[in-house]
Amino acid sequence: MASPPVPSLYEWVGGIDALERLTARFYEQVRADELLAPVFAHMGGDHPAHVAAFLGEVLGGPAAYSQRHGGHPHMIRQHLGRQLTQAQRRRWVGLLLETADALDMPEDPEFRSSLVGYLEWGSRLAVINSQPGATVDAEAQMPKWGWGEVKGPYTG
Description:
With about 160 residues, the chain is mostly helical. It has a single domain (about 10-150), classed as Globin-like (Orthogonal Bundle). About 55% of the residues lie in helices and about 5% in strands. It contains 7 helices and 2 strands. It has a two-stranded antiparallel ribbon with strand order 1-2. Helix 2 (about 15-30) crosses helix 6 and helix 6 (about 85-100) runs antiparallel to helix 7 (about 110-130). The radius of gyration is 15 Å and the shape is globular.
């Protein structure tokens, strides 16, 4: 008897609906956060949906972000010149995880380990790409995060 297929992280979290709930609630809190609000002061109303689509694609969902916005190079461009700090990065990750807890998103260690792994990696990359002199590789692949495996622009 064959084992059922392993769901993607995207399927496990609940798909785009769950990610849109997460990012909508998260960015509501960002607007009220003393450290993060200035970074996102000019954020458009569609920003949470864009981030949900990006996360969805990274976690194994449809390539909606790449199709609509240009993939990983576009995301990198959004961070150029912003000079993000480690304190802002840590707060962004912490607040996103607090929001996931508040929304009762999956708590199992395997899922959370993968999610935290991506958030740490991606937010550190955002800080690096926000510093003076950072450039965009127009051919950068979209990262793909899975259950203990990673494929992305800097992972092979």
